[in-house]
Amino acid sequence: MFKFFSESFDNFKKKISNTASTLVGNVVESVSEEEEFSEFVLDDMEDLLIGADLGVNYAAELVDNLRNQDKIKPSDVKNYLKNEFEKVLSNAGSNELGYDNNGLNIYFITGVNGVGKTTLIGKLAYKFKNEGKKVLIAAGDTFRAAAEEQLDIWSKRAGADIVRRDKADPASVVYEAIQKAKNENYDVILVDTAGRLQNKYNLMEELKKIKSVIDKNAPESLRECMLVLDANTGQNGLQQAKVFAEAVNLTSVALTKLDGSAKGAIVLAVAKEMKLPVKLVGVGEKMEDLRNFNSDEFIQALFE
Ligand SMILES: Nc1nc2c(ncn2[C@@H]2O[C@H](COP(=O)(O)OP(=O)(O)O)[C@@H](O)[C@H]2O)c(=O)[nH]1
Ligand SMILES: [Mg+2]
């Protein structure tokens, strides 16, 4: 069950109930009473899966498996989807957030503007502080002054320390944070980054530079290179994932704003297309609104 910040399974289930009804409920309702998988039924099913933001290719694949076969009946469609989703999630890798008790742990947090990177860092700082860790935040979004202010507020709330240098090169901020962390024995560095996709080339170069500073100065310490996705962006998120994956070697995804979103199917789309596991989920704007993602619970909440 949830490893930190107690929330009942029922609450989690409520938060993804919109996803459950668009992704599972509607499909089961439209298919399960049918006699057979006619082209008409399959087309309808495909449209619903695409509408739930599973992605065109993945939706087509799921539907194609049902064509010209007689093992799976329309009345089994719920089980069929459940098995398929379980497979995809387990192929994408472990949901467990990397952590090494015997060394420095760096979490490199990337994603486009507004997805919730800075908020996630505040939540993570709070989580690690609660676990008794020494936490340093590197304010690597030096582009917007407001971004650093916001991070300052989060660090104070969480009781974490921060390295910020207004308008400095983000890579140099991260360099300084690594030196400080080594000298003062920090357990965790959370690296915030900019997300201005309007200038994609420069942003990707900036991220690569930060990554190489980490690789050079703390080669064993990069615990997660995480992409933050807003659950509401659906398939757009998949496109974003591809751009970031090309620049830095992503290890996992954090999905924010899952509260209320009907597009939680992006978890499956990212697992399927990018082979990236979701490790963290944001379910609100408060410091406590962070959950470890657990595939089994996600499946259970979708299908129960
Ligand atoms: N409902 C909800 N809002 C969130 C969540 N995470 C972040 N936000 C909100 O999204 C907005 C943008 O967040 P921010 O952290 O500044 O995004 P950044 O530009 O990626 O750093 C803010 O208004 C946050 O309060 C979440 O899990 N749920
Ligand atoms: Mg930010």
Instruction: Write the CATH fold name of the largest domain.
Output: Rossmann fold
Helix count? 12
Strand content: 5-15%
Strand element count: 8
| CATH fourth-tier homologous superfamily of the largest domain | P-loop containing nucleotide triphosphate hydrolases
Shape: elongated
Distance between the termini: 16 Å
Helix content: 40-55%
What is the CATH level 1 assignment of the largest domain?
A: Alpha Beta
Q: Radius of gyration from the CA trace?
A: 21 Å
Structural class: alpha/beta
Query: Number of folding domains?
Result: 2
The CATH architecture category of the largest domain equals: 3-Layer(aba) Sandwich
The unreliable regions are 1-5
Bound molecules: guanosine-5'-diphosphate, magnesium ion
| Strand order in the sheet with the most strands | 3-2-4-1-5-6-7-8
Largest sheet: 8 strands, mixed
Describe the protein's architecture and organization:
It is a single chain. The protein is α/β, with parallel strands linked by helices. The protein folds into two domains: 9-91, Four Helix Bundle (Hemerythrin (Met), subunit A), CATH 1.20.120; 105-303, Rossmann fold (3-Layer(aba) Sandwich). The protein is built from twelve helices and eight strands. Strands 3-2-4-1-5-6-7-8 form an eight-stranded mixed sheet, sandwiched between helices. The protein is elongated and about 70 Å long. The model is unreliable at 1-5 (pLDDT under 50). The structure holds guanosine-5'-diphosphate (GDP) and magnesium ion. Guanosine-5'-diphosphate binds at residues 111, 113-119, 195, 256-257, 259, 282-285, 289.
